[in-house]
Amino acid sequence: MINLIWAMTSNRLIGKNNKIPWHVKEDLLYYKEKTKGQVVLMGENTYYSLKGYYKDKPLPYGKIYVASLSDNVFADAVKIDDVVSFLKENKEDLFVVGGASIYKLALDYADRLYISIIKGDYEGDTYFPSFSLDKFNLISEKETEKVKYLVYERKDI
Ligand SMILES: NC(=O)c1ccc[n+]([C@@H]2O[C@H](COP(=O)([O-])OP(=O)(O)OC[C@H]3O[C@@H](n4cnc5c(N)ncnc54)[C@H](OP(=O)(O)O)[C@@H]3O)[C@@H](O)[C@H]2O)c1
């Protein structure tokens, strides 16, 4: 099962200077609750972004795959140099946690989408790719003052 999880504004903004553009605690808690101890796939930029947030603390995942085309080595992660082949062969319950370039490659393989729509206007430089929900059913919807939480599941699984 391939899950994508992300938070974006209504115009699909997701990042600023390799960080999250907002600080919305309830969404952070939602993300942590969904991904804690899970197998995750992330791009190299997101990996360094998370390392910046966690500083010397270990990242809170069961297993980390980092997509990278560089020669860098990741002590706490398995390096993936071909995301599409990796996703096609995946048998794990995997959470794809960003960023933009990895979401773009993973959308066609996603079974489930956890989307947090962050309310308000923010500035940034990184956007979730445009995508269609035609092949997905909305299975859960919850709204608070700050966030709309949507969960979609692929129709043919
Ligand atoms: N709001 C959210 O939910 C959320 C979640 C996660 C991240 N973000 C934000 O998103 C931004 C980062 O996104 P990003 O797109 O810049 O970076 P990214 O997706 O985290 O990482 C991109 C990395 O993937 C590598 N890559 C590209 N294609 C690949 C392939 N086919 N196989 C293996 N590796 C491949 C790239 O290598 P090359 O550089 O060599 O091309 C690059 O090192 C940050 O601002 C972060 O805060 C937001």
Question: Can you walk me through this structure?
Answer:
The protein is an alpha/beta fold and 157 residues long. It has a single domain, classed as 3-Layer(aba) Sandwich (Dihydrofolate Reductase, subunit A). The protein is built from four helices and ten strands. The strands form two sheets. The chain has an eight-stranded mixed beta sheet with strand order 5-4-3-6-1-7-10-9, sandwiched between helices. A two-stranded antiparallel sheet has the order 2-8. Strand 3 (39-43), helix 2 (44-54) and strand 4 form a beta-alpha-beta unit. 25% of the residues are buried. The model has no long low-confidence stretch (mean pLDDT 97).
Give the SSE layout.
Elements: E1 2-8, E2 13-15, H1 25-35, E3 39-43, H2 44-54, E4 63-67, E5 78-80, H3 83-89, E6 94-96, H4 100-106, E7 112-118, E8 126-127, E9 136-143, E10 147-154
Parallel strand pairs: 1-6, 1-7, 3-4, 3-6, 4-5
Antiparallel strand pairs: 2-8, 7-10, 9-10
The chain binds NADP nicotinamide-adenine-dinucleotide phosphate.
NADP nicotinamide-adenine-dinucleotide phosphate binds next to strand 1, strand 2, strand 3, helix 2 and helix 4.
Would you summarize the structure shown here?
This protein has helices at 25-35, 44-54, 83-89, 100-106, and strands at residues 2-8, 13-15, 39-43, 63-67, 78-80, 94-96, 112-118, 126-127, 136-143, 147-154.
